[in-house]
Design brief:
The chain is of the alpha+beta class. Helix content is 19%, strand content 35%. It has two helices and four strands.
């Protein structure tokens, strides 16, 4: 099942640093929201040739996948976390 990015915005993280909150909508109508740390997401956007988070809307969610699988953070640190409204 492919998810499409339907919203992307900068929000304040729990530690006071900026995070990028991304809403994903699935083919079956399901919706989920994830929050990505700024560093990991910036790297993903650069690789995808995305200049602005506004350009994420309408793209498949795998554009931000490198931010979820990046290994350049110490063990135990997470690049993404689910956001529950």
């Amino acid at each position: 099942m492919t998810a499409t990015i339907t919203r992307a915005e900068i929000v304040g993280g729990h530690d006071g640093r900026a995070e990028i909150e991304i809403e994903l909508t699935y083919d079956n109508g399901g919706v989920s929201t994830i929050s990505l740390d700024e560093e990991a997401c910036t790297s993903s956007l650069d690789r995808a040739g995305v200049a602005s988070i506004d350009e994420l809307v309408g793209r498949p969610w795998h554009v931000v996948l490198p931010a979820l699988t990046s290994t350049d953070h110490p063990q135990g640190e997470h690049h993404a976390r689910p956001r529950h409204p």
